[in-house]
Amino acid sequence: MRILFVNWATVPVFAYGGTERVIWDLAYELHKLGHEITFLTPPGSTCDFGAVLSFDTEQDLLPQIPAGFDITHFQFQPKFDLDRDFGRPYLMTEHGNYNKNPTRPLNCNFISRDHARRHQSNQVVLNGLNWDAYGPVDLDAPRKNFHFLGKAEWRAKNVKGAIEVARKAGVDIEILGGQRFNFRRGFRLTFTRRAHFHGMVGGAQKFAALNASRGLIFPMRWHEPFGLAVIESLYFGCPVFSTPYGALPELVGGEFGFLSDSSSELARAVRDLSFDRRKLHDYARATFNSQRMAQGYLEKYQTILGGETLHDKPPVWPKLSKKLLPWRS
Q1: Among 3.40.1280.10, 3.40.50.720, 3.30.450.40, 3.40.50.2000, what is the CATH number of 2-130+291-305?
Q2: CA Rg, the chain, in Å?
Q3: What is the pLDDT along the chain (329 residues), one digit of tens a residue?
Q4: Cys bridge to 168: 33, 36, 267, 271, which one at CB 3.0-4.6 A?
Q5: Is the pTM of this model over 0.85?
Q6: Closest by alpha carbon to 13, among 40, 39, 50, 46?
Q7: Chain Cα centroid distance, residue 202
């Protein structure tokens, strides 16, 4: 099968790049299965297992999309109408929450059951990662501190809440993805010595930090569509202490972490930490891997190439409020 991936950002990624990491691992897995992969992105992408084409972000996208592919997989919703204007087999994956279009295309899928439900859909392919690229995991090594992983400048990620939980629990927390001083967001009030900031990290530096962590403290305050920080942490044997919003309840059950919108309750769970690291690791590796994700997408492709659409009517935008979800100090 000849598959064209259309994405608004370049690949591969070397630091955070959550969505692009998933796209890259999906394409690589499909390549290993014998499919021919081409990326269409803004200038700057490279790929050693597929072809790379570029589009001009200042021009209309539609006439820049080449024909001749069995299916075109969009990683964002373009400005033109896919069902009316494209005229070729396509799939679009919705990765986020705040797409301003009132509806989604008929051939659209979502990345968690909660994400799909909020769009009045049942079309889901869970995100997965190529765990072989993450290096060895040492589940028996002594671990000292906890960690936060994500773009700390996003208020919805609630890094201040994560630091509050660590302070109440009497533990130190490594902030992977933020600085103590953020001049775009104003001065960050993080005077506690419990918090250690490392900026945006990736690759070996991130893997080493996760290998040394006791758990993820991640009290986000929005409807998380999926949560790559969650499954990466689970893979390294780290239980997850988070809020019960978005996809978190379906990713983290009681065996793999603790969910609450209360900093005091999360701090108590952190203090009472008791989880089987091997069980966390095996769960992440078996459930959220790129092989399973690729098979899920191949099923969607075959449905579409068979002449069916994934939905009878367009999924709707849930019109979520951008107000932060509740957080109890």
Answers
A1: 3.40.50.2000
A2: 20
A3: 999 999 999 999 866 568 999 999 999 999 999 999 999 999 999 999 999 999 999 999 999 999 999 999 999 999 999 999 999 999 999 999 877 888 999 999 999 999 999 999 999 999 999 999 998 999 999 999 999 998 888 899 999 999 999 999 999 999 998 665 554 554 455 567 889 998 877 778 889 999 999 999 999 999 999 999 999 999 999 999 999 999 999 999 888 999 999 999 999 999 999 999 999 999 999 999 999 999 999 999 999 999 999 999 999 987 777 799 999 98
A4: 267
A5: yes
A6: 46
A7: 15
232 residue type, one letter: E
* For helices 228-235 and 18-32, angle between their N-to-C axes, nearest 10 degrees: 70
How far apart CA 206 and CA 213 sit, in angstroms, is 11
Q: How far apart are CA 30 and CA 70, in angstroms?
A: 14
